Fold this sequence. Notes:
B: 324 residues; alpha/beta; 8-stranded mixed β-sheet; 4-stranded antiparallel β-sheet; 13 helices; 36% helix; 22% strand; C: 292 residues; MetI-like fold
Amino acid sequence: MADTLLSLDDLAVHFTVGSALAGGIKTLKAVEGISLDVKPGECLGLVGESGCGKSTLALAIMGLIAPTRGRVALDGSDVKQRPRLETARTVQMVFQDPYASLNPRQTVRRTLADPLRLQGVGNKAEVDGRVMDMLAKVGLRPEHADRYPHEFSGGQRQRIGIARALILKPKLVICDEPVSALDVSIRAQIINLLLELKDEMGLSYIMISHDLGVVEHVSDRVAVMYLGRIVEQGGWQEIFENPRHPYTRALIAAIPDPFHRVDATANRTKAKGEIASALNPPSGCPFHPRCPIKADRCVSELPALEAVAPGHRAACHFRDRTV
Amino acid sequence: MTVPLLKVDELRIALAGDVIHNAVEEVSFEIGRGEAFGLVGESGCGKSITALAIMGLLRRPLSLAGGRIALDGQEIQDASPSEWRRLRGSRIAMIFQEPMTALNPLSPVGKQIAEMFVLHQGASWSEAMDRAEEALRQVRVPSPERRIRDYPHQLSGGMRQRVMIAIALACGPDLLIADEPTTALDVTVQSEIIDLMAELCAAKGTAILMISHDLGLVANMCRRVAVMYAGRIVESQPAGAIFATPRHPYTQGLVDSLPRLGERAKRGRQRLREISGVVPSIASYPAGCRFNPRCFAATDICRNTPPAQTPLPADGLVRCHHHG
Amino acid sequence: MSQSTPASVTADIAAKRRFRLKGGLSLWVGGALVGIALAVAITAPLIAITDPVMSANLMNAEIPPCWEFPFGTDAQGRDIYSRIVYGSRISLTVGVVSQIVNSLIGVSLGLSAGYWGGLWDDFVSGLTNLMLAIPSLIFALAIMAILGPGLVSLVIALGLTNWSYSCRLARAQVLSLKSQGYVQAARILGYGDLRIMFTQLLPNMLGPLIVIATLGMGGAILSEAALSFLGLGIRPPFPSWGSMLSEARDQINTVPWLSVFPGLAIFFTVLGLNLLGDGLRDILDPQTTTRR
């Protein structure tokens, strides 16, 4: 058994957009040069805002988008060479929107049983047993099996979504903003459930979220993405206690602190302006137009992701400067 | 005793259907001149339709079923449509969660701002366009002289929300209602928009009614916060106090249930405190206290009798039989 | 739905009200008209007074509506009522069968084009545009000219020429459903393309497709009338509503009941199908659009 479950090596996914007639063809570098490992039982937090490429990265990991460059290895073998049904047993996904992620015309039972049958589990009693086990694990009752999605609340639907992701007993689950579409009073239930299931089933997670509170709570290691690249990665404590990339600091500073009213003092570390388009990224360091500590060098030269401490790397020319 | 800018008194909003339900009831609060007031709650709690009522924008099947809304001491709940049109924009303005749906996609943004000056202040179009450019500069849109001719789809989400703020504040309203103004935006952009709103309103003396599901965001920006649950205000306190000493079990649950940055480093990973159960739908509000099926402290009285309001220090109130 | 936002509560209630009033009214009136037409077609031998073809009797020629012949008789002395009753079989068969053929072609092309995209999509879209650019009746005329008159040729001609609407609709539906989480989830679970199309996509787009097919049936009945009117549809002496109109065209001033009654039969059946389609749209749409 490999000691890394997932390993990304210089992964890049580019799309061509536009047409030769209207404005010319452009290359969108949705994911650019990402190298990452996820070990069994580990939870990797993936932080970033819209357009940072995290959704594309998720699809590439599951083999649903072919990489332009680089390699995705699951369990030691290239995802391109793995049969789709085998990949399905290894990596699964929990979606953000519990309303759009369940087929409105399928009962819960069918949603959970079909993937099993597809894997060749033909014995009806075994299928039924596994469906019932799974329902119990995510906190639903047996009679819920024959209901349709519209009969459930948002939180219950997300439980069904989690059951569907876990029914094939995968090793890695990509959770794409699993609580951000839920009511605030429901979120804690789902986060607790995900953590319990992780221990119980020995899962690894990639937790994609923009909610740093959630990421800090669940992650062992954290990677911060900006415009298709990883700008900082490290253990959760290093990232949150000693962030070295100004973008990571800006993300932390952007969280409203209920005990301190809005004032000017926090503005030192906040990012200015808007996220650039990945179609037309800035020169040099992609974050420089918004960076509070940018220098001339940042405009011309792309900083590499280099170590600041063992296991902690940041892509900033001033990674050694602390605030 | 000074007259508050906005006084909402025993507001009741009915939702007509097979049976008539009260989507909002017994909602009372006051906002002083230039004050930032927050209304927090989950989807379906009635916070957004409360805002619509204050804007005179309730449409069937929703209707105002009782209560008073007074602006500067003058009751406006029975205003005629033409009086409402005069109030909206010039004295009360509103910004929405998704600016793309609130802006006219076929009109340049400069023109949409200028329209406010023409409509409410009788300015000429050429003068209004100059003032629109100035308004864009105030909301820190870069190179406003060019952006003024852009259409909404050419702007990013954050820029659109800036344009919405410019339109809302164009005529110097007394009250700005912001309904989830940053929910659709990225976190770093969100904090900029919030800062901008707070700063502009402070400079112009505009009061803010901030509506959001994010207790942290609201407490960060507002002086006082009211928490709504299932159509009623369950607790209202100064912003600091609502986090430090929440009195209603629902507020306590909200404060405790979300992982806060820095907690894990201090105390290690602890299981999050859950609020059990689901948010009730309007057709199935429980008897008594509406939070009782989810409440850890519920007793028989909670299941039978709706709790009355208990005053708290600093103009606060809580609606709970066992407020602690 | 135990968890609801104000907007969705409003939508739920609005949907229920539509079901009761608007959808309800046109659904029931349309359903009743179509139901009567179907009942007439099925029970034709029982409710017809005479044989539609063999009852020719020149002694009875061109009698106006009376007790014995409620809709009058034609130049050969045949009972118009009985001919309309038997004619419903042909008109409804043409309407239903040709629409089934259209839907099968349109949905398979639209579904696959929307799902796979690429060159296949370009090809199907081009073909659809081509079909829409040629008036379908002209196209049907050409096919009829090759195949010759008759019921089977009618069904083939009308079934091959009106699939572009369901094709476009199916493609548009797939494009919007494709990005839904449950379709993505199915891919991640290892579902094959065909399985995704049939279990995840098709059931969620049936509502609008049924509506389009129902509306198309009315169109097909009118096209049958037009083709028969032009002499390319059902050959005399067998009755179809269109061929009856066609035969009556010279005598519309002198013997008006020859054209009025088949015309009314077409009118009420097509009206019924359109109302039914509208009613179905109103009750099926809120359920098929996935809530956000």
